[in-house]
Amino acid sequence: MTSNLSPKTWTIGSLVKWATDDFRTRGIENPRLDAELLVAFALRIDRMRVILDAERPLEGAELAMLRDLVKRRRAHEPIAYLRGEREFYGLKFRVDKRVLVPRPDTETLVDVALARTSGISLSMRQLDLCTGSGCVAISMAHKRPTAKVFAVDLSPDALDVARENAYRLGTYNVAFYEGDLFAPVAGRTFDVITANPPYIPTAEIETLQPDVRDFEPRLALDGGADGLDLVRRIVDEAPSYLVPGGVLALEIGAGEAPDTAALLEARGYRDVQTARDFGRIERVVSGVFGGDQSATKPA
């Protein structure tokens, strides 16, 4: 927002229009939505009031705050980081540059884990690897308040965010551990293991939208040459941490489902299934290891 804004009286509507046009020229996706979200956040109102109060003049302090937010969004800083939160599975998670922004696609991972453990009693035990903001672990713990959820991440910064989210959302049945995949939970077994590991092929990182490439943590994005480095490790090691008939559910990148399913089948998982996200992309691959064929229900 430049100084040429000062000679006129800015209203909510004129500011939204100006920011929308500005964002569009900079190649930002959903420019109108982003403008409305930033205005709603700065003014502490909902998006409906942004529309209904379009003629309300903006005060100097409000313009100053919006000037900073627009400047940061111009540089493609994610809206979720600017607002400091993102909704996931009906819950509001605090997020910042220490963690990936939770995405609707990942809700499919929660759906699959819930469906494939629907027949388990009150004492379900879950392990969530690469937990990041804790969105998957906390959503599962919220839906299954009698379950015991273990959440692991290599990044201590990410775990700080996840712990804060668990505290704010009142999910006290989640325990957080720092370390490399299964190392912090050696000797334990689980009914279900979920993971949203880094799965972007290294060569594709630079082709991502600047919102992701320049702001979200590289550690949580880079999945190695073909995107499956951690997927292979998890598929190979998980059987030692699953009860008989336990479920492994993995989020993977677009186009990676066939290779991931083949990895599970080669390792001896059965009833391997693929679930699509809201965009109809094959997003989650899951399977059962050992146990009775009827131990789990299909997604």
From TrEMBL:
- Cite the HAMAP family for this sequence: RF_methyltr_PrmC
Q: Which Pfam families match?
A: Methyltransf_31, PrmC_N
Could you identify this protein by its name?
Answer: Release factor glutamine methyltransferase
Q: What does the UniProt record say this protein does? A: Methylates the class 1 translation termination release factors RF1/PrfA and RF2/PrfB on the glutamine residue of the universally conserved GGQ motif.
- Could you give a GO molecular-function term held by this entry? peptide chain release factor N(5)-glutamine methyltransferase activity
Q: Which family does it belong to?
A: Belongs to the protein N5-glutamine methyltransferase family. PrmC subfamily.
Instruction: Return the InterPro entries for the record.
Output: HemK-like (IPR004556), Methyltranfer_dom (IPR025714), N5-glutamine_MTase (IPR050320), PrmC_N (IPR040758), RF_methyltr_PrmC (IPR019874), SAM-dependent_MTases_sf (IPR029063)
Domain Methyltransferase, by residue range, is: 123-208
Biological processes per GO annotation:
methylation
Q: Where is the Release factor glutamine methyltransferase N-terminal domain?
A: 15-84
Q: What keywords is this UniProt entry annotated with?
A: Methyltransferase, S-adenosyl-L-methionine, Transferase
Q: Where does substrate bind?
A: N196, P197, P198, Y199
Q: Which reaction does it catalyse?
A: L-glutaminyl-[peptide chain release factor] + S-adenosyl-L-methionine = N(5)-methyl-L-glutaminyl-[peptide chain release factor] + S-adenosyl-L-homocysteine + H(+)
Read off the NCBIfam families from this record. Answer: hemK_fam (TIGR00536), RF_mod_PrmC (TIGR03534)
| Record has Lipoprotein as a keyword | no
Q: Which organism is it from?
A: Labilithrix luteola
What Enzyme Commission number does this protein have? Answer: 2.1.1.297
**Residues reported in the UniProt entry to bind S-adenosyl-L-methionine:** D153, N196
UniProt key word Disulfide bond: no
